[in-house]
Design brief:
Blueprint lengths: L4 E6 L4 H12 L4 E8 L7 E4 L2 E7 L10 E4 L3 H13 L3 E4 L28 E3 L3 H17 L1 E10 L6 H15 L31 H14 L5 E8 L6 E9 L5 H9 L4 E3 L11 H4 L5 E8 L8 E8 L3 H14 L1
Parallel strand pairs: 1-2, 1-5, 2-4, 5-6, 6-7, 8-9, 11-12
Antiparallel strand pairs: 3-4, 8-10, 10-13, 12-13
Helix pairs in contact: 1-8, 3-5, 3-8
């Protein structure tokens, strides 16, 4: 990459924004200038990029003059409010919120899954939901080989999915529980310390949560399979960082575990960790701060009378591949 780019990060002080800045540096993205944008209360503070302090500026509609690429992780309302200003300035918005994901004229992209969709952007490219990203990095290579027909998922989502406040709440509640102190949930609907909460985002009329339906509709859009059947149960677990998922897959063609391993070993963004005899399988503690999605527990679905079903387990860093890294990879493709 010989050209240098003026880059802005909106929501720079949040958990994902901080990781976006780190990822730009670690991947040596060709940054000519870096503009860090946040709320008025953060303006004037500094963050470090390549050893140099960068002063945080207040996010305004005039923030994007001269900017080539704007990475957004400031929430859907903020993204909707500033989208026109970004596009009108000539910049490309790579948005980490759910604001534009299902808009027909906005590409929804995971570079390992559907990089070709970037070509038809009109100034905005959407970053998918973190759980969908982690799932599809593992599933897309198998889909290309054997055509996925149906997917049933159970997620084990870390508190990092709720940002810094979610992670802080787990740490605080863990100490409170160990000291027999009273607990008052704030970031989550219930206590998260030593507990599971089968509730992420709001419930819809059909009994599914919005998070669960995101995985359905986003998968259909990115795989270009409008009839794909997907059912999910999303669960918050007392893990600091990295989401895990148990996936049951049904294909149009027969596929064996050995075939699946061979396909996944050659797939970008995937690390096969599948050696149960030596107690090696994907775990969030091992996926934390890794770029690749870990895939293992690959086995034939024994509830079927044919070999068109597989069960697999995946783990991926929600803050990195599930958010910041994916956005920077999109910028690299641009």
């Amino acid at each position: 990459m010989s050209k240098m780019y003026n880059v802005a990060v909106a929501g720079a002080t949040g958990a994902v924004g901080v990781e976006m800045v780190k990822t730009l540096e670690k991947r040596n993205f060709p940054v000519k200038s870096l503009k860090l944008l946040a709320s008025k209360r953060s303006a004037g503070k500094t963050m470090t990029f390549k050893g140099e302090p960068v002063v945080i500026e207040e996010l305004t509609h005039d923030s994007f003059k001269g900017v080539d690429i704007a990475l957004f992780s400031a929430g859907g309302d903020i993204s909707r409010e500033f989208a026109k200003s970004v596009v009108d300035s000539g910049a490309v918005m790579i948005d980490n919120s759910s604001a534009f994901r299902m808009e027909d004229d906005v590409p929804l992209v995971v570079p390992e899954v559907n990089p070709e969709d970037i070509k038809w952007h009109k100034g905005i490219i959407a970053n998918p939901n973190c759980s969908t990203i982690i799932m599809l990095v593992a599933v897309a290579p198998l889909h290309r080989a054997k055509k996925l027909k149906r997917l049933v998922a159970a997620t084990y989502q870390a508190t990092s999915g709720a940002g810094a406040k979610g992670m802080d709440e787990l740490l605080v509640q863990t100490r409170q529980l160990l000291n027999n102190e009273p607990i008052e949930p704030k970031a989550f609907a219930h206590r998260i310390g030593f507990n599971l909460i089968p509730h992420i985002d709001v419930f819809k009329d059909n009994g599914y949560t919005k998070e669960e339906l995101k995985m359905l509709y986003e998968s259909r859009k990115m795989l270009h399979e409008p009839e794909l059947m997907v059912s999910c149960t999303c669960v918050r677990v007392p893990v600091l960082r990295a989401h895990s998922e148990a996936l049951n897959l049904e294909f149009a063609e027969e596929i064996t575990p050995d075939e699946a391993r061979a396909i996944l070993k050659n797939a970008p963004g995937v690390e096969v960790v599948d050696d149960p005899a030596n107690k090696r399988y994907p775990m969030p503690v091992d996926a934390t701060e890794k770029y690749d999605v870990l895939v293992g527990r690959i086995r034939q679905d024994i509830s079927r009378h044919d070999k068109r079903g597989l069960d697999i387990f995946v783990a991926g860093d929600q803050v990195l591949k599930g958010a910041a890294l994916n956005a920077v990879q999109i910028a690299e493709l641009l």
